TrEMBL record:
Residues 1-87 form the Thyroglobulin type-1 domain. SUPFAM superfamilies: Thyroglobulin type-1 domain. It comes from Cherax quadricarinatus (Australian red claw crayfish). InterPro entries: Dev_reg/Prot_inhib, Thyroglobulin_1, Thyroglobulin_1_sf. Keywords: Disulfide bond, Repeat, Secreted. Its main location: secreted. Gene3D superfamilies: Thyroglobulin type-1. Pfam families: Thyroglobulin_1. The keyword Disulfide bond applies. One of its GO terms (biological process) is cell-matrix adhesion. GO terms for cellular component: basement membrane; extracellular space. Signal peptide: none annotated. This is Thyroglobulin type-1 domain-containing protein. It is found in: Secreted.
Amino acid sequence: MCVPDNASVGCVYVQRRYDDDLNNGVIKQYRDDYRWRPECTLDGQYAEKQCKGPYTEKRCLCADPSGGTIYGKAFRWQTDLYDTMNCKCSRRVWEMTQAGASSVTLHCQENGNYEALQCEDGWCYCVIPDTGVPYGAFLPENAMELLPCYNGTMTGVMYLRRCESEHHAHARIVDRMHDKGVLQGPSSVLSCDPDGSYSAYQYDLDGLYRCYDKYNNVIEQPAGGGCNCARDQKLYQESHVITTLTCETLDEALAGVYLPIQSRGDTVFCVDQDGVRAGPIVYAPYRGYLHCDKGTDCQNGNYTACEQVCDPCPTSAYPAYTVNQ
């Protein structure tokens, strides 16, 4: 039987601290509304799906057992993706990669759920997207169109998509060379997402990191540290969603990541690299008093840090406080 870790770290600890602080009146809504309650597994790890941020600004993301963000996310306004999200496929791909799999051909949806059609080692089968449990026959890939879950519009005539076709071919070459005793195969810098498309953050042969869309088109350059913001900006534009969130400036060579302190009208606030608000909203003159790292510590159960996210800040620094008085 697994016993949850009760040390001052981990999902159960953060969950209990949140519950205790909420029940004891320690959480001040005008200041601490960004704190969120994590979902934990029975053995005390972070569940596959986590919904972060204030209630009206929540964003759900897929997580590894330690709470780190992995592939798969959805905003509240992406109703279908948000409401059905379970992240089981994304977590399974993460587990296989951590176990050393050189090429994983499972296909996940944008929200981390399983796609209905899956193929591995030349054989294809249908799964229940909510669980990943297979059903029906296993057929060779060249007969996959006979499966009831086959969707020609989504899959086409080839199961592997453009990025993973390149990556999978390279991985097979390396594996065959290893079988023949050649330990150093040809290198590859290509990175694919679990839906088979190109990852956002790519290292190019000229030595620079750049941000790409899923079709391998450059959307921001150079990039140093990630491309979540660049990808999200493109999503907002394509979905006709108005946002004030901005990415780091080009001259700082961090074009793809979120600016840690964001502005909205006459207020400012911290965000994490998932674009989720990770601190209180304060009036712009208090920008210099924001300590975004303390917001992260507060979320992770350190109450002392909650007092230091905006320090020193009077209650009048918080718009939510003045509005509710």
